[in-house]
Amino acid sequence: MKRGFGLMEVLVAAVVLAFLLVGLNTMQKGNREAVLRIRTRDAAQIIAQDFLDSLSKLGISSIPTDAIGPIEKSYRWEGAKNMAADVKYTLDATITENTVTEESKLGNVNYTTSKNIKLTVSWPFKKSTQSISVSRIVK
């Protein structure tokens, strides 16, 4: 009666184990890239919200009526084990006025009732450029 494992059995087990380890490594790399993509998008949303909030606090009369940007901002986040990123974001805003015209005895009078702010935040990711667009109406 034969006892133990033969050379072929050990080699087959080693090849199967190698394939499993390569598969797990590929999955881990994909997970890291997904986390990085999500974190950079979250940071872009935070930067966009902060920018829109600061414009809203200025008040309608202080917001310019043309484009703002490009503005460069950096953001750093740190995650678990060796996961950190410094990302440079570019902000571009276009602003349009919503006006109302009233007729009077002295002539037509235009009033700005609100301003529409459309903000695009873009950043490099791998070999492409990612972006988000948000908008807000300021009264």
Q: What is the approximate shape?
A: rod-shaped
Question: How helical, in percent, are the residues?
Answer: 25-40%
Record field, number of beta strands: 4
Largest beta-sheet details: 4 strands, antiparallel
- Alpha-carbon distance between the termini? 90 Å
> Which percent band covers the strand fraction?
35-45%
Helix count, per DSSP? Answer: 1
Oligomer: single chain
The count of domains is 1
- Tell me, rounded to a whole number, the average pLDDT: 85
Task: Name the strands of the widest sheet in spatial order.
Answer: 1-2-3-4
User: Radius of gyration in whole Å, from Cα?
Assistant: 28 Å
Contiguous runs where pLDDT drops below 50 for at least 5 residues? none
Q: What does this entry look like structurally?
A:
This protein has 139 residues and is α+β, with helices and mostly antiparallel strands. It has one domain. It is 37% helix and 45% strand. The protein is built from 1 helix and 4 strands; from the N terminus they run αββββ. The chain has one helix at residues 7-58, and strands at 68-78, 84-104, 107-125, 128-138. It has a 4-stranded antiparallel β-sheet, with helices on one face. Strand 1 (68-78) and strand 2 form a beta hairpin. The longest helix has 52 residues, at 7-58. It is rod-shaped and about 115 Å long. The protein starts with 6 loop residues before the first helix and ends with a strand. The mean pLDDT is 85.
